[in-house]
Amino acid sequence: MPTSVTRAGTRRAGRCPAGTGTGGAVTPKGLAKREKMNTKPEKIRYNRIAPLYDWLEILPERLVFRAWRRRLFHFVQGPLILEVGIGTGKNLPYYPDRVTLVGVDISERMLIRATRKTITPNVLGFLTMDAQTLAFPDGTFDQTLSTFVFCSVYDPIQGLQELLRVLRPEGKALFLEHVRPESRFRGKWFDRLNPLVVSIMGAHINRPTVRNIRQAGFIVEQEINLWSDIVKLIVARKPK
């Protein structure tokens, strides 16, 4: 039974299985873009590592990521939330019962694992979708959330503009991101190491993500340094 997402965030049918469902009208142009997803390096890479993904990050998850996620979720209000790049569902245990969640990811194999972790009835569905071409109507969601996602989106500003589009006016976008350090010396080292890291992990370590968020049209309300000035918690708002 498919689930459709409405502005009110009501459940109109049963939960979507991973990789299926609807999210508003999809134009022929949008369908063409979604077809191209199959050849995207990001999709291929994350489908390949999906069975090992949680194991690869088990140590940093226990040491620091869990605490950072809890801190981010202090800002979650909902009621209707879109999580972009939901991956294997590492954030699922932190969602309060009062919110309704739609999760999207470019990798259907990651979403299969997220489905297995679902412990709340408030999940409308998990959908295979590119952050750069979200198939939802304008102003659908009250909040969006992403954790360590825009380091790997091919065109981060386009993806951020899509978040802005699907948020309601004055809706909030919540981020955990690692970014290029502000220090000239450390920044240059991150620039030099970036090609190697991208080739291994697919993530860029030298992106100016806070600047990108502003460039996409958001108003940055809070920028909190969690680890030096490299890992940040960012709360941004869509203008009226």
Salient structural properties:
Rossmann fold, 35% helix, 7 strands, 7-stranded mixed sheet, alpha/beta, globular, 8 helices
Short recap of the structure:
This protein has about 240 residues and is an alpha/beta fold. It has helices spanning about 30-35, 40-50, 55, 60-70, 110-115, 155-165, 185-200, 210-215, and strands at about 80-85, 100-105, 125-130, 140-145, 165-180, 220-225, 230-235. The protein has a 7-stranded mixed beta sheet, with helices on both faces.
Word description of this protein:
The protein has 240 residues and is an alpha/beta fold. It has one domain: Vaccinia Virus protein VP39 (Rossmann fold, 3-Layer(aba) Sandwich). It has eight helices and seven strands. The chain has a seven-stranded mixed β-sheet, with helices on both faces. α5 links the parallel β2 and β3. It is globular, with a radius of gyration of 17 Å. The N and C termini lie far apart (36 Å). About 10% of the residues have low confidence.
Order of helices and strands: HHHHEEHEEHEHHEE
Label the overall shape.
globular
Structural class: alpha/beta
Count of DSSP E strands?
7
Give the low-pLDDT segments.
8-32
| Fourth-level CATH superfamily | Vaccinia Virus protein VP39
Question: Percent of residues in helical segments?
Answer: 25-40%
Tally of helical segments: 8
Work out the strand percent.
15-25%
Using the coordinates above, name the CATH class: Alpha Beta
Topology:
Blueprint: H1 28-36, H2 41-49, H3 53-56, H4 58-72, E1 80-84, E2 100-105, H5 108-117, E3 123-128, E4 141-147, H6 156-166, E5 167-178, H7 184-201, H8 209-215, E6 219-227, E7 231-237
Helix pairs in contact: 6-8
